[in-house]
Amino acid sequence: MIPVSEPVIEEQDARMVERAIRSGFVSSKGEFITVFESRFSSYCQARYGVAVCNGTAALHLALAALGIKKGDEVIIPDLTFIATANAVRYCQAKPVPVDSEASTWCIDPEKAAGAITKRTKAIIPVHLYGHPANLERLLEIAESAGIFVVEDAAEAHGAEIKGKRVGGIGDIGCFSFYGNKILTTGEGGMCVTNRPELEEKMRILRDHGMDPKRKYWHPYVGYNYRMTNLQAALGVAQLQKISRILESKRRNAALYSRAFEASDLVTLPPEADWGKNVYWMYSILVNKGGQTARDRLIERLLEAEIESRPFFYLIHTQPPYKGLARRRTPVAANLSRRGVNLPSSPLLTENEITHVAETVVKILKS
Ligand SMILES: *Cc1c(COP(=O)(O)O)cnc(C)c1O
Questions:
Q1: Residue nearest to atom 7 of ligand 1 (CA)
Q2: 131 C-alpha to center of ligand 1: Å?
Q3: How confident is the model at residue 325 (pLDDT cuts 50, 70, 90)?
Q4: Strands 160-161 and 148-152: what pairing?
Q5: What φ, ψ does residue 250 adopt, rounded to 5°?
Q6: C-alpha of residue 60 to centroid of ligand 1, in Å
Q7: 310, exposed or middle or buried, with CB in 10 Å at 0-12, 13-18, 19+?
Q8: In a mutational test of the pocket of ligand 1, which residue from 52, 80, 81, 105 has the highest number of ligand atoms less than 8 Å from its CB?
Q9: pLDDT of 323 strictly over 90
Q10: What atom of ligand 1 comes closest to residue 189's alpha carbon?
Q11: Are 193 and 154 in contact (CB under 8 A)?
């Protein structure tokens, strides 16, 4: 079976985790946490990093630190992983899903602008499947409306907008280090920011809302969202090979795109001229036959021992979010019905990629 993704775990990763476990610091104290926070945030060209237990906690912590609360609205793309919406709901605020743009597959800035009301407090652009959202335009819109931008960069470590890395561009950037993400710590996440007051608030809320100068004094209802030293050790080792991982992802993408080039059966993933796509998941759209053809493709690929995944269902169609005010999201709906993530592991060989592409074409032709 060719898997859709596979973590790159090597000798050096095992040695680093071993060092952490032998140090005796197995929970959230220990040298690796601060090293990982400072190295990963520098990688994102941001001043501060606050490591947490997963990417969803990173999103919730960011919104909590910004004071998002009941009655507030937060604009999100309709096409995203459920965690983006759930983090808003954890604050008892209302997620407002808006349409995507065909040129990035990410949130459409003009649609986001059109959804702003007096209650809107933040926008969460998601850098979907590794392509950066159009933050330049979103930041202008957010600034003139006086609202925050929280980047959901869970799928886009190392992606760039005009040479600037994502995560460090908005007020807070949130990353995931789940097993299938670009870097993994098993489970894990991080919030990065350039603003010291947000960093401090996130550190406090991450650790039970405890006053950093007064042990067991808790001015806030906080959370236990800490990352362990063992996870951070794996993160430090993973970060050492990020450029290698990203090169493989981009090499995979070039090989796939070349193999599909002559075919009018599929639409290839976008790359805006202002952005660098890191192709977390190399994804295509099926051109004919809509969702039926897409679902059939996934099934037939599996029979050929090739794993693939459909794009996310739209947030407003998910049971907990069915009641949300309905805004039309035709671009997102079209992507959601036609999209497939193909095997995207950095460990894939050129032969495997050619084989996957040829099998996709053969199935779509039959
Ligand atoms: C993976 C992911 C998350 C959540 O990360 P976890 O570490 O699984 O909690 C959030 N947003 C997006 C877009 C993701 O892909």
A1: 55
A2: 15
A3: low
A4: unpaired
A5: -75, -35
A6: 11
A7: middle
A8: 81
A9: no
A10: 7
A11: no
Q: Count of residues for the chain?
A: 366
Whole-structure pTM value: 0.98
Contacts 24+ apart (CB under 8 A), 175-179: 175/40, 175/44, 175/55, 175/58, 176/54, 176/55, 176/56, 176/58, 177/54, 177/55, 177/231, 177/235, 177/238, 178/54, 178/55, 178/154, 179/7
Listed residue (6, 2, 57) closest to 228, CA to CA: 57
Q: What is the pLDDT of residues 230-288, one digit of tens each?
A: 999 999 999 999 999 999 999 999 999 999 988 999 999 999 999 999 999 999 999 99
Rounded (10°) angle between helices 350-365 and 242-260: 40
pLDDT digits (tens, 9 = 90+) for 23-54: 999 999 999 999 999 999 999 999 999 999 99
Distance between CA 188 and CA 180 in Å, rounded? Answer: 11
CA of 62 to the centre of ligand 1 (A): 14
Identity of residue 145: A
Task: List beta partners, residue 78.
Answer: none
103: tokens are 């040129």
Residue 139 pLDDT level (bands cut at 50, 70, 90): very high
Q: Which amino acid is at 124?
A: I
**Structural domains of the chain, ranges and CATH numbers in brackets:** 11-239 (3.40.640.10), 242-365 (3.90.1150.10)
* Location of structure tokens 């060719």: 2
Beta bridge partners of 94: 73
**pLDDT tens per residue across span 73-131:** 999 999 999 999 999 999 999 999 999 999 999 999 999 999 999 999 999 999 999 99
Share of the chain above pLDDT 90, in %: 98
Q: How many other C-beta atoms lie within 10 A of the C-beta of residue 264?
A: 8
Does residue 81 have its Cβ closer than 6 Å to ligand 1?
A: yes
**What one-character DSSP code corresponds to residue 364?**
H
